[in-house]
Amino acid sequence: MGVKKAFAAKFTAAPGKALELAKLDPRDDSAFEDKDKAKAQLLADAEAIDRLQDRLFAEGKRALLVVLQGIDCSGKDGTVRAVFNCCGPLGVNVKSFKVPSEEERAHDYLWRVHHACPPRGTIGIFNRSHYEDVLVVKVEKFASPEAIERRYEEINQFEKLVSNAGTKILKFMLHISKEEQAVRLQERVDDATKQWKFKPSDLETRAKWDQYLAAYEVAVRRCSTDVAPWHVIPSDRNWARNAAIARIVRETLEEMNPQYPKPDGWDPGTVKVA
Ligand code: AMP
Ligand code: MG
């Protein structure tokens, strides 16, 4: 077991094992010595992710898909900014999944997701994902219980297909406390630069906190697999969240170990640019 497994293992949801989010402390920062060291580690990891991303792009054979899920204010956008802020825009693409459009609703729920999967050589980040189809859709009863019940296995099969085609999948659930969400939602209400992120309906979603948590527990338990593991990340502290995710992404890319291709059909020893 390499370094990566040892670190990621602190957060990995064991396939098929019951998950009790109430027992996982969203303020837990025991994976780090202290805040300053975690911040320094994050900066180093973000730079390493950029170098590895360059190799992944040059190699052009495989992709990495990072799925970010979490309740409103859990820090999905902030994670993207902190973990991938060193990467050039060439090989990284972020896709945010919103309420499905009319065209999207005319297809099966995985249609828009498959279309958004990263092409070989790139890193794709999903800000929300197909998991909304077993989270908000379940809580709000937008689909029948039978249809939702089928989806867990459909999602596992879909992720297996994507993985077999050369895409490494990492899934992160950003776990915050209800108290922390209250603080962050209030900030959105009070701060003119954040009001655009707030909708009055966010409060209705908040009122269903326990139902959402229960839906997350089932999704993580049933869809954490060896090819596409879920990681539950304590996220009340932004710095601990960012540092944990960056380290897992870095070590996954290191394990993939993408290689620069050798010159094809020419010899660098014989070419002199005049
Ligand atoms: P936000 O991430 O705050 O911009 O909000 C996006 C909204 O789209 C959230 O309320 C999600 O629950 C919702 N959403 C995303 N995917 C789906 C889906 N498949 N069905 C219904 N609502 C969705
Ligand atoms: Mg929102």
Q: What does the overall shape look like?
A: globular
| Residues in helix, % | 40-55%
Distance between the termini: 50 Å
Question: What oligomeric assembly is this protein in?
Answer: single chain
* Architecture (CATH level 2) name: 3-Layer(aba) Sandwich
Tell me what portion of residues adopts beta-strand conformation.
Answer: 5-15%
Q: What's the total helix number? A: 11
Question: How many domains, in number, for the residues?
Answer: 1
How is the CATH topology named?
Answer: Rossmann fold
Strand count: 5
Helix/sheet category? alpha/beta
Gyration radius, rounded: 20 Å
| Helix-strand pattern | HHEHEHHEHHEHHHEH
**What is the class in the CATH system?**
Alpha Beta
Reported for the largest beta sheet, the result is: 5 strands, parallel
Overall pLDDT level: 96
Ligand inventory: adenosine monophosphate, magnesium ion
Spatial order of strands in the largest sheet: 2-3-1-4-5
How is this structure best described in words?
The structure is a single chain. By secondary structure, the chain is of the alpha/beta class. It has a single domain (9-258), classed as P-loop containing nucleotide triphosphate hydrolases (Rossmann fold, 3-Layer(aba) Sandwich). Helix content is 47%, strand content 12%. It has a five-stranded parallel sheet, sandwiched between helices. The site of magnesium ion has 2 residues, from loops. The site of adenosine monophosphate (AMP) has 10 residues, from α6.
